[in-house]
Amino acid sequence: MKQTKLAIIGAGGLTGKELTSLLAHHPHFKLVHITSNQVNGKRIREVFPDLNHLPDLVFQKHEVTVPDDTHIVLATPNEVSLEKAPEFLKQGRKVIDLSGTFRLQNQTKFEAAYQFKHTQWEWMEKVVFGIPELFREKIKHAQFVSNPGCYATSAILPIAILGNLRNQIQGPVIVDAKSGVSGAGGRTEEIKFAYTHVYENFRAYKVLSHQHEPEMEEYAFVGAEPKEILFTPHLLPVYRGILSTIYIPFSKPVDSKEIEEKLLSVAEKEPFIRLYKTPEEIELKKVQNTNFLDIGFKVKGNTLVIVSALDNLQKGAAGQALQNLNLMFGYPETEGLDSV
Amino acid sequence: MKQTKLAIIGAGGLTGKELTSLLAHHPHFKLVHITSNQVNGKRIREVFPDLNHLPDLVFQKHEVTVPDDTHIVLATPNEVSLEKAPEFLKQGRKVIDLSGTFRLQNQTKFEAAYQFKHTQWEWMEKVVFGIPELFREKIKHAQFVSNPGCYATSAILPIAILGNLRNQIQGPVIVDAKSGVSGAGGRTEEIKFAYTHVYENFRAYKVLSHQHEPEMEEYAFVGAEPKEILFTPHLLPVYRGILSTIYIPFSKPVDSKEIEEKLLSVAEKEPFIRLYKTPEEIELKKVQNTNFLDIGFKVKGNTLVIVSALDNLQKGAAGQALQNLNLMFGYPETEGLDSV
Amino acid sequence: MKQTKLAIIGAGGLTGKELTSLLAHHPHFKLVHITSNQVNGKRIREVFPDLNHLPDLVFQKHEVTVPDDTHIVLATPNEVSLEKAPEFLKQGRKVIDLSGTFRLQNQTKFEAAYQFKHTQWEWMEKVVFGIPELFREKIKHAQFVSNPGCYATSAILPIAILGNLRNQIQGPVIVDAKSGVSGAGGRTEEIKFAYTHVYENFRAYKVLSHQHEPEMEEYAFVGAEPKEILFTPHLLPVYRGILSTIYIPFSKPVDSKEIEEKLLSVAEKEPFIRLYKTPEEIELKKVQNTNFLDIGFKVKGNTLVIVSALDNLQKGAAGQALQNLNLMFGYPETEGLDSV
Amino acid sequence: MKQTKLAIIGAGGLTGKELTSLLAHHPHFKLVHITSNQVNGKRIREVFPDLNHLPDLVFQKHEVTVPDDTHIVLATPNEVSLEKAPEFLKQGRKVIDLSGTFRLQNQTKFEAAYQFKHTQWEWMEKVVFGIPELFREKIKHAQFVSNPGCYATSAILPIAILGNLRNQIQGPVIVDAKSGVSGAGGRTEEIKFAYTHVYENFRAYKVLSHQHEPEMEEYAFVGAEPKEILFTPHLLPVYRGILSTIYIPFSKPVDSKEIEEKLLSVAEKEPFIRLYKTPEEIELKKVQNTNFLDIGFKVKGNTLVIVSALDNLQKGAAGQALQNLNLMFGYPETEGLDSV
């Protein structure tokens, strides 16, 4: 079978590294070009000594021309994606962007959340939001996919798959999420990510003001009446994984059977969603290094509590990106992602 | 000054150890008797090699007669407290019980939460619930104090000190709490507390069904209209500390200034409550090994979010017990607790 | 290409799990039978929710007959291997044993180290010690391979590849090794592997008395004059990885250039040995989840210090087992092991 | 009793913080002046929210004049101690310096180890090396004490207290030490102390080239024939504590009884040295937050292995400094240090 050539722009970060590792085992994609402005000039095996099967590539600067017939993964900061995505799209390449730049449909909300002016808003007409479970058909035909945020995925999916039951939701949904450092920017040299500040510690950050909050509000209720989401992220002394505890107030007593049937009907047909009998079974250990979203739930009176877990670098970033790439290029959706 | 003699029944556990350590530095209490059915016969310095200033005591069996003129701390399992508390009270001793046995005023709720029959319910008339910030005067004159639960303290205090503002609360309050293993029973040999199950992991447990939920409902709204509380505890890969994120829905837009004034008025006069400017400043590191309850808050629309943190072994157990003991015996409330 | 059928006896432990995961990605081996006396009756995906690509197998009891034409991996305790290995060998199957039962050539030393009577000593004539870098040709033709210990591999290889330079060694070699809990038996429910006993802690164990000490002495000096080895293992608050600091006293000043050339000559031709310029570059992070043995060294006067690191579950157990299986069945040695 | 006034120059670092905390509980010392060029202008309770009993002080710049009748603790970098110590000494104040600046008696070795020119060498005549167990009487009469290094203490003491048995030592002594990040400079913002580089990792650093190696060689053999020491430090994913495994080659078979008697004779009279029956009982947990040095040993043939553990911020730094201060000012040596 003919292989599809890919370039990763910004391959030196955590997400780029994760995708590089996944692609190394993929039968149909061939990584031919990687860039990094931090480690350009170095060989990939030198930068990632803990990875295997790696192609024999050297990191290039972002500016170096990408070979012909090569499609693009942007694992770059927002500002770089803003500039590079349109450039590659105009060259006729397919592009998947892992930054937040092309995720929100409302420019005012975007600029409030991301604190910078969006100068390429016209491309929002072309972009498809990359949650396969919700937008599978659109992704298959997209030239341009925006890959969702890690926290956002952990909340959007459990809510969205409630389907028509979402119309019984009354009042704001609370998403109390807890992430390992790799999902919270933890690779930088900032003192707040020093061992002495993370180990044996725990704290909330960006309370009700994280940029994934509007992303959740935008996609969790697609096809239903929109509701407010109140989102608080927390930093765990853990490397990878996000667990979200989601409190959903209904307008009437929640029927446990009805919820179970709805969630099960989705879990049975989705290769990367697993439903457990109880919320206590959901834990980071079960999803780390996998592309699964695990969910469990409990009801009490009018309240539904869903606990979800995913690996922020896989289903929350590079894994979901590969799931999208498989769809964009006509390969089996689970290829290279080890779903059961 | 004359010293007050104390015995700790069940001094071999984590809470007993913490209180033993605090008392070793206290000028007015003298620990004269310690019991443990696990390590009886051993010397205290042998059992706690990491503690200092310890009195030269040997662990006794629970059955050994406590010396005269000695008051009692019960750091025992529920079943032992149920039997021992009345026995010591009838001998005229003052008793503080750190178990959950005498915390709930409603017997039906108690038996549902604790799953055993309460055969000493008549003593509930005599007992005082030991949160000094709420029941200081009663504690001063009590013969029998029931020390609150660690999770419960982390939620009751932040809500209760809202005072009359609690009457604007509409609908259930959500308490999403995260605890280190020492607050979640983590000393036992169970496989779920093995290193390989806790490290790099995170999970919820007893979702909406923890025995501290009714305790919160009972005391968070004293003097105001009662509200439902929905409580989910989680297990952190951390040894000590509890951080609770509390979502409070109001019937109208919350006035940030009003909340701040109310909380500040309490924090200014309470030696162990610290109010921070933002909820992002609250973290386990600041409260570990202290008797402080730290709080910060944020408002958005009709919702108030309070983040609280405490050390589960101090303000959540042994520290608060010593605060109560100081009150019960007429000593300065902060003695031996190092408040500023 | 025809696939080779394998059974793992004792697949429910950490080593069995690791090998199951590796085999799931291997093109030439097909896992057809797994046993576990702890989780028999359960499906593999239920027991290992964090693994992917798993075959659809159910754990059997050890006693269940292994299908014909199926070769055997023993990931069993010593006592089980002692009984099962001869049984399978007599059936004409190839067997690789991951226990310590068939590693030592001297029965007296064996029984002193392992504290039980070896009743199958005649099989020691047939067994090959499974370090491919030392015994590659023998392994290719072996029916029966004994896979080395994790600590043992981390010390034997760095010493053995010194080749003829070993004849300049004077006096005992000191191996000071530090292992994560998965290499030290850390899955059991023993209190010493509880989170509260491992986290923020560090200790030595079996000082100069670990059963891998005679294993090191036996194989580190093959082809050279034997020397005494003094071995102390320590327990790290880490899940996987072993780092060994090896102090080797020479009879004359060590020539750094000579050491480097010798080690480099080996590293250049061995797919799983990586030589770094300095010992400070060796770290657990670089070898975790890989089959590499990383080494670096420093000399001072008559002393050579080698720092080595490996993943105890891969190069220290299941990875090395697969390396041996590849050799035993004529497949490329690195297949399924992701070497560069 | 009259209190002795103290100033801590450089009180904002980990060691300064530890000493500040210890002094807050000390009946005879009164901390009257603290400096820090990082946090000057801030109140001490704001900088150390997790400490209690703190005096109400504001951090000053280093240049601010220290009040009269106030003695000096230097918890400053080497360059600052080099300048400040002579200045304060000339003012007639007593000075204890926690840096490495005045520890080595040989200027050439000092400048090789510390990589800067020592311009105040004349003060080496006045300084006393502050290990109380070795130099108690000199410390009592000293105006100027140099507090030992943390690694150095963990090796010097176990060797030195062997007394005349040291004359049977043949060849180099190997000190393989493992430290938590607070003993290895782990507060800085360097990427090597980021959570992602320390957690689940382990590595050696400064192999055979750490500046504490000559310090060990200088003081471990006082009163005996000097021997070479080979020292390798390692970084643990732990916050506090050092465990050293010390391999001592004797010229003849070591007599376990003789070692035990010698070590016990010291441990019985020294308040901060504890001898355990086996080296496996030595662990970081037992010494954290204490001023104890714990030791255990094992012999095999001509080799003696001693395992020692201490808290690098207490017996390895601030605790030992307070032990020295008690001696310098005529207070009971264990005052404020909680020895049993």
From TrEMBL, chains A, B, C, D:
Pathway: Amino-acid biosynthesis; L-arginine biosynthesis; N(2)-acetyl-L-ornithine from L-glutamate: step 3/4. The active site is at C150. It holds the Pfam family Semialdhyde_dhC_1. GO terms for cellular component: cytoplasm. Its EC number is 1.2.1.38. It is an enzyme of class 1 (oxidoreductase). It catalyses: N-acetyl-L-glutamate 5-semialdehyde + phosphate + NADP(+) = N-acetyl-L-glutamyl 5-phosphate + NADPH + H(+). It comes from the Bacteria. Keywords: Amino-acid biosynthesis, Arginine biosynthesis, Cytoplasm, NADP, Oxidoreductase. It is found in: Cytoplasm. One of its GO terms (biological process) is L-arginine biosynthetic process. InterPro entries: AGPR, AGPR_dimerisation_dom, AGPR_type-1, NAD(P)-bd_dom_sf, Semialdehyde_DH_NAD-bd. Its main location: cytoplasm. SUPFAM superfamilies: Glyceraldehyde-3-phosphate dehydrogenase-like, C-terminal domain, NAD(P)-binding Rossmann-fold domains. Belongs to the NAGSA dehydrogenase family. Type 1 subfamily. Catalyzes the NADPH-dependent reduction of N-acetyl-5-glutamyl phosphate to yield N-acetyl-L-glutamate 5-semialdehyde. This is N-acetyl-gamma-glutamyl-phosphate reductase. The lineage of its organism: Bacteria, Pseudomonadati, Spirochaetota, Spirochaetia, Leptospirales.
